[in-house]
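Two records follow; treat each independently.
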Amino acid sequence: MTNDEVIKDMQRMQSGMRIQKVVATRSLKGRYGDTLLGFSAEWDSIQQDGTMGLEDVGDPTQGGLNAVDSQKAALLLGLQCDRAAYLNAAAGGNMDKAQAITAIKALTEGYMSQYKALCERTEQRSK
């Protein structure tokens, strides 16, 4: 199989993928131990985690996110997870509040930059 054939097959697979769940976890080391945090997000789907219908959300006929939108969702969820980890570390005295605020500002800029770059790459490909 040639490289071009591999790329074409990867593109075919990617165009058909639908991502149902995005997960982000963080661990921050602090002066009094670790701050651990994890988030997961469902996209318009029915959860299959044994909750007996109590957690069903969305439309079961929907196919989830495409590959590009799943990358955007991962960035958004990662940002929320990072922010919460720093806020929790500061709230628990594991980090100075000023350090947490500085870190949150820097990571927000980084996530915004990555999100913008992803949007621009997607826009370039669609032209």
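The next record belongs to a different protein.
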Amino acid sequence: MTPTVFYWLNKGISRVINPNQLYKKNLNDFRTIVLVRYIPLSILIDLIFLKRNSKTIVLLLDDNLLDLNIFSELPLPYKLKIFFNIYCYKFFFNLFINEIWVTNKRLGAKVKQKISTSKIDIKLLSLSYSKSFELKKIFRIAYLGTSSHTKEFIFFKKII
């Protein structure tokens, strides 16, 4: 289970299936399919038919993957991954996506600017992880980003 699924979907999700282990014939067993961050090319055509058959297809975004800045500091292999796994589909979302779930208001505003249709609902999620912490206790903080997020490392360096 990825951190995105754990923190944002853990309470309301019934089954988590890795797209590599998904059988197309089982897609009809679900009323709602939540795609996390990327669109699996292997089921793209199936998603179009599922949406036409009144299934709900949701795209969960926890990062601004629809704004690919070619001049950004991201490594080229990661830019290519973003392009081929989500960015190139954004103009066709209305064919296979019913809703886009975002993790913060700012991301919701950016997504609204980038998608070409207003037929897709954008929903702001709240954290599903709600464990409380004791005060006056030292915690080890794990950063789950990648080395390509240089601005976040600079931010962390300032607060540490």
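Discussion point: The chain has a mean pLDDT of 77. How would you locate this feature using only the token line?
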